[in-house]
Amino acid sequence: MSNLDSDRTGFATLCSPKDALVDIVFVHGLRGDRKETWTEGTTLWPESLLPEKIPQARILTFGYDADIYHFWSMPASANTIKNHADSLTAGLIGLRHEEEQTAARPIIFVAHSLGGLVCAATKQALSNAEDCLQQPHTKSISDCTRRIAFLGTPHQGSNKAQWAESGKNFLSLFSRKTTGGVLKELEQGSDTLVKLGVAFPTWLSHRAGKPKTKVEIVCFFEELSSSVGGTSIGKIVPEESARLLDYPTLSIHADHCGMCKFRDEKDGNYRTVAEVLARWAKELKEETKEEETETSGGIVSNSKFGDNNQGQQFGVYESKGSTNFASGGTWNQGKVNERFAMETNLHASGQPQLEGFLDGV
């Protein structure tokens, strides 16, 4: 799939309801296609089945040119996996900022095979951007990424030999020779994956420390061996390789290529995956409602104003640059929530007191 038509790369929107509350983004794997990867017969399940299960989700699918040497890369193309990740990030930013109300939606990624590494590389780049705080749009994608479903994605950490073994499995799937020389070449080309295998869990650990930003993950693994020309070549990504420490794993009764293709809503494999996605969407919907409730009375949490701001504030603060008040933003006086003020700052005589209530403004 080296010379893809323009209509097979980038993003395609499969479903976009007006009341969408979450974005679900599908990312295919090695030699995949943004639609064919997810299609069994004539059923493109993210388009024909999932909207009924999760009616308030915008469903997107991303396509890119995925050759094995874009992952196990030689020095001449060492940044190819990063290029795929950058394209995914840039395209998603563009889609989410075309309409203002979509920019803050929570994101669920569904990635098959090596597409999971593209997602992980995206998170590595986003983590770096988060540290330097120089790309606010990119950081918004990082902040909004809340759930990831990995379907047959290898997680080998810093072990170069294991990454090379995974590469050999993928070469076998596409009928390429896997001589000792090729295996050595794959091991030498695993440097980027080794770095990624360390950086991604670090990013997850960082996010886990914040209750409302923790990223939930489920790793799915194939139960059946793959075959080429009628000959079994074993499991491409066995359970032990698909596991990510501290996150749940679930099995799918299919081989590596079939684990992401579902014919109808009665398909047991579809139900396994769809139930996870539906649960996540429900959780994120409830969180969104809670956040709206917190701000509906005019109360804005400290997190909206930066770590240096103390106490609860009322009204809306329009920041210019930094979120610290010292940066010279504009304070728009909103209607004070009188009931809250009375309940939290009563004078000894029983009369409401606002003195000192807005200290620091």
From TrEMBL:
PANTHER family, sorted: PROTEIN SERAC1
Species whose genome carries this gene: Letharia columbiana
UniProt main location, coarse: endoplasmic reticulum
Gene3D superfamilies registered for this protein in UniProt: alpha/beta hydrolase
Name the record gives this protein: DUF676 domain-containing protein
Keywords associated with the record: Endoplasmic reticulum, Membrane, Mitochondrion
Localization: Endoplasmic reticulum; Membrane; Mitochondrion
GO cellular component: endoplasmic reticulum; membrane; mitochondrion
